[in-house]
């Protein structure tokens, strides 16, 4: 396997395995690899910080002194936008690396946008990359999808409560 990788013409920073390693250790993206408790804590922090923008907007629409329930529900929904944007960024980043690892070929640029090349992975590199996708990246994408579903469920519950008020 080492000879196949050493013969790889793809620049080091554009090799899918190195892109995966960079993503796995980068700020924010590494949060997806934490255990569920730590991961959800990070998402709650993002939601809480998003209240700095959503809170004043909700207060302008529904003064807390008069409509506390509507203020809380609209502020919570507005703060969820920050979480949704973060989740979309995380999902797209992991999806990109998954596609690069899973693909039989790797598109790369030698020195600029005008001289792109394609490299076909040898079977052992392809097998290694697909194992990484199956055992490392697929669970992360499933976690993000589950988080999207949970957030959608919470927004649905908030909508139902809103209409009951």
UniProtKB/TrEMBL annotation:
Keyword Transmembrane helix attributed: yes
Coiled coil location: none
Alphabetical list of Pfam families matching this protein: CGLD27-like
Signal peptide start-end: none
Keywords carried by this UniProt record: Membrane, Transmembrane, Transmembrane helix
Transmembrane among keywords: yes
Membrane-crossing segments per the record: 44-62, 68-92, 146-164
Name of protein: CGLD27 family protein
Originating species: Amazonocrinis nigriterrae CENA67
Phylogenetic classification of the source organism: Bacteria, Bacillati, Cyanobacteriota, Cyanophyceae, Nostocales
